[in-house]
């Protein structure tokens, strides 16, 4: 929007402002949202996007929230090379299988052909653990808790969607090494709680927390625990996760140490991550046909102030608008005093861009010592006295944050159906629901499930299981079920 | 060091602790410093290092200093793709020539050969400006001020040195676009002052500020202004820089806009950067044969507290040590209460790792309500009363910061010799000095200069020129000089 000459802008203002697709035509709606709300743009590299300032500022916020928290856990940030020699990548067989189909390979530098192909990291286990094996020698070196913020390439050939499925994305890679299995597994709760707090309290996103099935776990992990999110289009998507790797990597990369009895032991490892995909989940979850809606705690600018003036009143109105801007400084307000656009155009633009609260001030408001405060999430207008604007706006922002989470929670809860037959499962999946049903821990059952449901898979398996589990049978093979699992179509 | 079982550690404590090479055998000394002070490590990717926690924490500090400042300038952070299609990279000819010899090329993804080679970005002009050309249409869209923190690959075939010359490094890329030449050039002062402030006040590094010669400027720029640093080994190294690109890129990538008269104009552009190389400059500048020395403002942990205890006194000494740790919280102190190492070993380890101030507390100190405070930079010891420790430590840290800058400034000033003959120049370069001499702005003269001096080049050209410039002749060709330039060997 903001990149248009006035004439085109006014024209577009009539016809095309806002998202013209309905939210239920999800992918067209989501794509328009990305472009028109100025969150991302396509590039000449297929499957890779530009993160524009609003989206990137929100990601930087997530980064700082994670950094603050892991620092308290004693985790230290490091930076490993982007490129990984093929010979390192192939050390851990399962890990290799999981990633090679998607690896981008550097084969030439300048005009020289390289002797060995270098992988653009799809993830950093291989390069990090080669170093860990040299750095860790004694029990004194443990625990070793490192984290890195990485841009990674996974050259998927499926249809890309901005933020949700891109060939390049950014994430944190927590890589921790412990002397004992117990210490390593104790970390799980701490990490999952951290990610859940950030998603819940800042991004206003509820999730389903549980273990992945063996078929769906991370390549190389003993088990994976994930936060799964439910999108308005009826698709689930995997968010942050925690992988307990046991000794799989420590044996493959020889990460061993001398214990206090001078005996050689293999270390126990975890990895954990949150990625830029969460931006897409948040944008998709809260927004509407008028454009972006952001939870105030995630929004870089929580307020926009739009002065309404004519030549004779401009000076006084602007003066007051600046006062309010100063008063509300903590919310990083935008004062939109552009002459070349009319207020109506500005309202639409900032609604499209998801500023949580709009403040309108015109000559009439000045006379009444008040301004008009409008919520982006439900368009409610309120007349607020200048002297109360600080307190009132603070309350409104808190209320928006709460309201968005509750709306998303209702959507999630409403989507889940517990059932115990394959027929019901198929119908429920057709109706874009999340199924909670008994299954046996068995790849064949999951393959069949996927096939017969037209692509649904096990999302995860909650720790707390229904009481009737021991009496329940797998909805696929009919044998005794190992667990109740969440099942759905997923990105 | 910290990755050793006790026995080996004690052994090494006798023989190899600290940097065994003398600082004047620079490259051996610097390499040992990197490894033993635990700042970086080599990897299986030749020319690429791991940034270990201390080094990376200092880089993160630099990042936050830059981000704070550019936000005030109205610059917004974005994130563009890592990979750049070859067809985009070749648009600006000079730019292309500058980088292609060093580009790492992705040619395969999974098992598929790509139709077009993708460059791992050596810098992001090509991919950013392709987007800018679509985003910028009207004078309303200007100025556009974006920045990105990028990891880049430049596959140099020269001998790599950790931090100072590595095939992968990280930097900020400021890319700003203006409607007029004047606005664009006005940005120069703001950016150069920002970089100079950070280098001077935080990294304690003085520099020579000036324009690059046409031969040495950035590939694609109209002119380049740089901060040049002088290292203890007599080599200069280029630090942060600012490039005025004029309309070179805007014409190559069609970054044009309609001005207020609806006339098409090409935009004016700048780019500016500071890189992880500055870490190497800072480590090299301040450190000594005992190991790392860090300016307190750059050090992640400014203090280490080493309690000296025997079994009977341990409890009381530790109690007091914890009190002091709490008192000095703002300096992120390390309390080294490990049982498995003796105090002498700990002193050496933390000196090696460059903690600016060490506090020793033993039973005798307790009796006197005092502790011993030791400076890393000059080893001066002071007995300080507990009640004064906060104030005193603050003063000492400030004094260390000042002292390190003054030492570096003296080294730089002492290295510069102004002269006006080629013979003197050659001698001075042999003696590892920086020469300030008259030159003509002429690539042939610079080639000859480089050849005859055994590799010296023009570092930069200060804005303020000697009064006798108009009477001065180029020390190479003897014709009227265009400027006095700083000349030296450089990384």
Descriptive key words:
homodimer, 491 residues, 5-stranded mixed sheet, disordered N terminus
Radius of gyration of chain A, whole Å: 26 Å
Distance between the termini of chain A: 29 Å
Main pleated sheet of chain A: 7 strands, mixed
Mean pLDDT of chain A: 94
**Strand arrangement across the biggest beta sheet of chain A:** 3-7-8-14-11-10-9
Tally of extended strands of chain A? 23
The fraction of residues in strands of chain A falls at: 25-35%
Give the helix/strand class of chain A: alpha+beta
Shape of chain A, please?
globular
Largest interface: A-B, 67 and 66 residues
User: Any low-confidence stretches of chain A, pLDDT <50, length ≥5?
Assistant: 1-15
Number of helices of chain A: 15
Please, could you describe this protein's structure?
- 2 copies of one chain form a homodimer.
- The two termini of chain A are 29 Å apart.
- Helices cover 36% and strands 25% of the residues of chain A.
- Chain A is of the alpha+beta class and 491 residues long.
- Chain A has helices at residues 6-15, 26-36, 53-72, 86-89, 93-99, 125-135, 181-202, 248-252, 277-286, 314-327, 343-352, 363-367, 389-415, 422-430, 443-452, and strands spanning 40-42, 49-51, 76-77, 83-85, 104-109, 112-120, 144-153, 168-178, 208-211, 223-230, 236-246, 256-258, 264-266, 268-273, 303-307, 334-335, 357-361, 370-375, 381-385, 416-418, 434-439, 457-460, 483-488.
- A 7-stranded mixed β-sheet of chain A has the order 3-7-8-14-11-10-9. Chain A has a 5-stranded mixed β-sheet with strand order 16-15-17-18-19, sandwiched between helices.
- At the A-B interface, strand 2, helix 3, strand 3, strand 4 and strand 5 of A face strand 2, helix 3, strand 3, strand 4 and strand 5 of B.
């Amino acid at each position: 929007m903001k990149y248009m000459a006035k004439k085109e802008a006014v024209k577009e203002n009539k016809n095309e402002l806002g998202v013209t697709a309905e939210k239920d035509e999800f992918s067209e709606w989501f794509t328009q949202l990305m472009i028109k709300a100025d969150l991302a743009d396509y590039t000449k590299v297929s499957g890779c996007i530009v993160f524009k300032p609003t989206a990137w500022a929100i990601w930087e916020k997530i980064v700082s929230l994670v950094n603050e928290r892991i620092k308290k856990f004693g985790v230290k940030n490091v930076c490993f090379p982007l490129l990984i020699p093929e010979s390192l990548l192939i050390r851990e067989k399962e890990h290799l299988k999981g990633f090679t189909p998607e690896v981008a390979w550097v084969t030439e530098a300048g005009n020289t052909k390289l002797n060995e192909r270098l992988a653009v990291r799809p993830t950093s286990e291989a390069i990090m653990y080669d170093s860990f094996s040299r750095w860790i020698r004694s029990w004194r070196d443990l625990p070793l808790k490192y984290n890195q913020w990485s841009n990674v390439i996974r050259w998927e050939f499926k249809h890309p969607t901005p933020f949700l499925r891109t060939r390049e994305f950014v994430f944190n890679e927590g890589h921790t090494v412990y002397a004992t299995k117990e210490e390593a597994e104790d970390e799980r709760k701490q990490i999952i709680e951290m990610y859940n707090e950030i998603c819940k309290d800042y991004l206003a996103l509820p999730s389903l927390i549980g273990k992945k099935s063996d078929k769906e776990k991370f390549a190389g992990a003993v088990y994976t625990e994930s936060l799964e999110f439910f999108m308005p289009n009826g698709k689930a998507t995997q968010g942050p996760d925690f992988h307990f790797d046991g000794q799989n990597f420590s044996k493959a990369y020889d990460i061993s140490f001398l214990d206090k009895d001078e005996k050689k032991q293999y270390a126990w490892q975890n990895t954990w991550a949150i990625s830029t995909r969460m931006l897409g989940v948040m944008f998709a979850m809260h927004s509407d046909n008028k454009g972006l809606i952001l939870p105030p705690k995630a929004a870089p600018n929580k307020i926009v102030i739009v002065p309404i003036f004519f030549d004779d009143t401009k000076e006084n109105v602007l003066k007051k608008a600046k006062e309010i801007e100063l008063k509300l400084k903590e919310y990083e307000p935008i004062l939109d005093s552009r002459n070349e656009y009319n207020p109506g155009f500005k309202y639409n633009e900032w609604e499209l861009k998801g500023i949580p609260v709009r403040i309108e001030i015109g000559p009439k408001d000045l006379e009444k010592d008040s301004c008009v405060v409008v919520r982006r999430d439900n368009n409610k207008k309120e007349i607020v006295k200048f002297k109360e604007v600080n307190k009132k706006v603070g309350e409104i922002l808190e209320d928006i944050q709460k309201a968005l989470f509750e709306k998303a929670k209702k959507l999630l809860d409403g989507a889940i159906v517990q059932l115990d037959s394959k027929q019901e499962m198929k119908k429920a999946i057709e109706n874009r629901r999340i199924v909670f049903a008994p299954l046996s821990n068995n790849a064949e059952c999951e393959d069949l499930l996927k096939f017969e449901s037209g692509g649904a898979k096990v999302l995860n398996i909650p720790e707390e299981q229904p009481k009737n589990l021991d009496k329940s049978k797998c909805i696929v093979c009919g044998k005794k079920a190992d667990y109740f699992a969440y099942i759905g179509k997923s990105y």
